[in-house]
Every structure is written in structure tokens, then in C-alpha cells.
């Protein structure tokens, strides 16, 4: 059946709650209202007592989730927007990510923290940030960002089954923008495996989340043979997939909407230069957001990477 990402995520949550009675959903307005984007809509009626509306307290939501996970539950905690995750950083960094190491494996935190992130809907401040670097930089966390409905369902199922804490970031810009065929039956998508979305021979574009759509636009209109890699998982990143592609094409462009400095593009560029320097035919290019706060709302379109900026980077790389 063809569904959007909101429906696919809802399908995954229902699937995993049926499969495992220890899966619990908690967060602000996730029950009666079905979440601000309606991802959890209808689940309270199907699983009474297992979908919990919490107070407006992100630190409390994550703290309670950690306690549930340590004692055998499988909590899926929701924070309403990207910018609201900051109050919970104490628990995320100091406890959620560290508890396995701190207890030398006696305790684990099989917990998912999911939230919508990124620009594209012209929302308010604290509603359009891309904070993935915080979590990728924190040892002990897995970080997942799907780019479409099929992967969203399969990756969320894998995240819920993971023995370790997972940060699951959902690009709100494409919640309802695209539909894909998504099986009704149970399936998973492996964590830590990138996907080659499009085969190419001359240049590799590496991206994730909503930026994948912009990269596809470029590839479909370009005269160059472009290979597109969807990272899907940012931590652990699938460098083997990147290596295979860049060795073939000799050129790489990395795209993300987060600020440029210390973004995923910087890390991937560093890895490529450390390990694949002699395979490169041109310097690695980055197309990213800028090192400023998202200029909302009228200037948002100038901030976000688009097909025009990506095309210019591809051209510069090819003509080097």
C-alpha cells in the first residue's frame, strides 16, 4: 500500500506494540491527540495504558524512559520538536548513552527517542533545527534518519528492537510530502547500512533525510552520471558503502541542512581524505546549512540546501 511517512511510522509503532507487550509510548500529547504530527494517532485506543500523555517536561520524559528501559520495558519517547530536545540533554548524554558502559554491561537502555527535525515548513524558532551532530558526537547512541516511508517503518522497528538507545530523527519536511509502497506485514531495515539510491559512475552524492529529495532532482536533471548514497544511519555510519562508491567515481559531494561546522559533512570528508585520498580526482565538496541560527520564516529557503546549490557543487567538482 502507498503511504506517507507519518502513516509508515504509525504502522511500525503498532506492529511493535503488538509484537512486544513491553513497548510503551510516552510524550506530550501522544495519546488522546495522537502527537503534534499525528504519528501516534489511534494507538491509545488500541493499546490502553501503554500510550502515556506526559507533562510538558522533556527532561522528565527521557528520565522516565531510561528508568523504564533499565527495568525491562521498551519505551519509545517522543519530544515534540527538535529544539525542545535540549532540556533533556543531561539525561541523554550522561545516562541514556552511558549506562551500559557505567555498569559494565549489567544494565542496558533499550529505548528510542524520536522527534521531528529540520526546516522546510516555516515554523517558529526551536521548531526547525538540525541537531544531529550532538548525538553523533555522543558515544553510546545510535542515530537514525530515514528519507522515506519504507525505510521509516523498517528502521523504527529495528530501533525499537535494538538493545541500545537510539535517537530517531524524523524529517518533518517530508512527513506527508511523498508516498511509497510500504508492506503491511512486519519487516525491518538494518541499522548501520547505507543504501545506494541511484547508481552512477562519475560522482558520488552522500546525503540523508529530506536532502535526498533535492539530490534526486539534481541527478535526474544532470548530464553527469551521479551516484546517490542515502546514509540512513549516521551513527554508526556505513563508511564501507561510501568507500566503495568514492573509489569508483573519484569525486564526492556531501549534503545536509545542519550548520556546516562540525556537521556530518565534515566528518565524512575527513574520513574520505584520510582513507581515500589517492582515489580522489577532485576535492570533496560540502553543501550545507550556514553557521547561523535558522532565519525564520521568510529567509528559510535561502538557508536550506537546494538543487541549485547542489548542482553548482557537482559542476565545480566535475570541472576541477
Residue runs with pLDDT of under 50 for 5 or more positions: none
CATH topology of the largest domain, which one? Rossmann fold
Oligomer: single chain
Whole-number mean pLDDT: 97
Structural class: alpha/beta
CATH class of the largest domain: Alpha Beta
Radius of gyration: 19 Å
The tally of beta strands, per DSSP, is: 14
Lateral strand order in the biggest sheet = 3-2-4-5-7-6-12
Shape descriptor: globular
How would you sum up this structure in a few lines?
The protein is α/β, with parallel strands linked by helices.
What does this structure look like?
- The protein has 320 residues and is α/β, with parallel strands linked by helices.
- It has 2 domains: 2-181, 3-Layer(aba) Sandwich (Rossmann fold); 195-318, Rossmann fold.
- It is built from 12 helices and 14 strands.
- The chain has helices spanning 5-19, 43-46, 58-70, 89-96, 99-102, 132-136, 149-161, 211-221, 239-249, 264-276, 300-303, 307-318; strands spanning 2-3, 23-27, 51-53, 74-78, 112-117, 142-144, 166-171, 180-181, 195-198, 203-207, 226-230, 233-235, 252-259, 285-289.
- The strands form 3 sheets. The protein has a 7-stranded mixed β-sheet with strand order 3-2-4-5-7-6-12, sandwiched between helices. A 5-stranded mixed β-sheet has the order 9-11-10-13-14, with helices on both faces. The protein has a two-stranded antiparallel sheet with strand order 1-8.
- Helix 8 packs across helix 12 and helix 9 packs across helix 10 (264-276).
- The radius of gyration is 19 Å and the shape is globular.
- The chain starts with a strand and ends with a helix.
Amino acid at each position: 500500500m502507498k503511504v506517507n511517512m507519518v502513516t509508515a511510522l504509525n504502522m511500525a509503532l503498532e506492529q511493535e506494540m503488538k509484537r512486544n507487550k513491553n513497548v510503551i509510548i510516552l510524550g506530550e500529547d501522544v495519546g488522546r491527540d495522537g502527537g503534534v504530527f499525528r504519528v501516534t494517532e489511534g494507538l491509545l485506543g488500541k493499546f490502553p495504558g501503554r500510550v502515556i500523555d506526559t507533562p510538558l517536561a522533556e527532561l522528565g520524559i527521557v528520565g522516565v524512559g531510561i528508568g523504564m528501559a533499565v527495568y525491562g520495558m521498551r519505551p519509545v519517547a517522543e519530544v515534540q520538536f527538535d529544539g525542545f530536545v535540549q532540556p533533556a540533554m543531561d539525561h541523554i548524554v550522561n545516562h541514556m548513552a552511558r549506562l551500559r558502559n557505567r555498569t559494565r554491561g549489567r544494565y542496558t537502555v533499550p529505548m528510542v527517542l524520536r522527534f521531528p527535525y529540520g526546516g522546510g515548513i516555516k515554523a517558529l524558532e526551536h521548531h526547525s533545527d538540525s541537531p544531529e551532530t550532538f548525538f553523533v558526537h555522543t558515544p553510546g547512541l545510535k542515530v537514525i534518519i530515514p528519507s522515506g516511508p519504507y525505510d521509516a517503518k523498517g528502521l523504527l522497528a529495528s530501533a525499537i528492537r535494538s538493545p541500545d538507545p537510539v535517537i530517531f530523527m524524523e524529517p518533518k519536511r517530508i512527513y506527508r510530502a511523498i508516498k511509497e509502497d510500504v508492506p503491511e506485514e512486519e519487516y525491518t531495515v538494518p541499522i548501520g547500512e547505507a543504501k545506494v539510491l541511484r547508481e552512477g559512475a562519475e560522482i558520488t552524492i552522500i546525503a540523508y533525510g529530506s536532502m535526498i529529495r533535492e539530490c534526486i532532482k539534481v541527478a535526474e536533471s544532470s548530464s553527469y552520471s551521479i551516484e546517490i548514497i542515502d546514509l540512513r544511519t549516521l551513527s554508526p555510519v556505513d563508511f564501507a558503502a561510501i568507500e566503495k562508491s568514492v573509489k569508483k567515481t573519484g569525486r564526492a559531494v556531501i549534503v545536509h541542512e545542519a550548520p556546516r561546522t562540525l556537521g556530518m559533512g565534515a566528518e565524512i570528508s575527513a574520513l574520505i581524505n584520510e582513507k581515500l585520498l589517492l582515489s580522489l580526482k577532485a576535492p570533496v565538496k560540502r553543501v550545507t546549512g550556514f553557521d547561523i541560527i535558522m532565519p525564520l520564516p521568510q529567509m528559510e529557503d535561502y538557508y536550506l540546501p537546494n538543487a541549485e546549490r547542489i548542482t553548482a557543487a557537482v559542476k565545480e567538482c566535475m570541472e576541477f
